[in-house]
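Treating backbone geometry as a discrete language has practical consequences that deserve illustration. In the encoding step, the backbone of a single protein was reduced to a row of integers, each denoting a local shape. The amino acid sequence and the backbone structure tokens for this protein are reproduced below.
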Amino acid sequence: MSDIFVAQPSDLTVHWAQCVVNKHDDSIVVSKVNVVSVDIGTTTRIRLTVEHNAPHFLPQHWFVKLPSLSWQAKLITALPRLLHTEVRFYNEVVRPQALIMPELLAGESQLGKGAVLVLSDLAGVEAVPGKPSDVLSVDQAQEVIKQLAHFHAYYWDKAHFTQQYKWLAGPVRRIEDFLGSLLAVPLMKRGLKKAAEIVPFSLHAPAVQYARNRSKVMRFLSDATQTMVHHDCHPGNLFWDQARPGLLDWQLVRFGEGISDVAYFLATALEPETRKLHEQDLIKLYADCLKNEGINSVNDIELFERYRAHLVYPFEAMLVTLAIGDMMHLESNKELIRRTAAAVADLDAFSALK
């Protein structure tokens, strides 16, 4: 076959791996493929070992992403073509050199055929993947903030990037936003019901009111200087190369306000007490890093107010994840709801929405 499209883990054969290898050097010969693990969430994620005769040239530990085998997750992710977006991100987007990411081995996306993404597996380079429920230290949080600031500064208010990557705000993203607003109220109510013992009752009514006005809120949250944002920056989408953080899972990448990634990260990655003690210093670190890269338009007080407002999105995202089901391990999902609910309550985030 000339392409690498497959439907399920059992399709990852020697012949398939040879097709991937041929994209790099058709003189390399694959001799064996072994499936190490399969994890099903928003996508189906497979870890492989691939034996071939050029380990000095291509890694032998691979990480493969396919469309989810969970019907609930597939129902939510298929129309907005989230995996297709990630494939395109890896293939097309020019990225800052210091951004730490796995090596792209192959990625293809085609309407009617689906999408497949093949990356080097972190196990092969002794990097440590994060788990959604990981609790980060303040030192680790500082390193992630520096990485986010560097990433955001690269695209900050640069019109040629928004023109070059117009597909990040194209029809697929508009479908995602439409579905998000259309389903916001029933999913929010279902999520609150399933997480009733975790979310303070005082947040229930404001959360449903937010869901009813989600389209307006999204316009308010996007009304700011634009940069490229990850939009799903929780601990499970990080990995650690010693003390250096890298970012995984770019399905939701888009143009937006940079502080939104910081809000998502701090709300999900820190214990609430740690966040309360250090969030202002971490936001100041973010602003200082931007200024060091020539972004001088950042006002610290306004930045903190925008941070407060953006906390509503990770809270919604975790409740919607619970409402849909089969998108994240249940206990991890509940833990992130606990953390994001605490952030929203501590900073009265709903009142920051004008």
Notes: The chain has two domains: 9-122, 128-352.
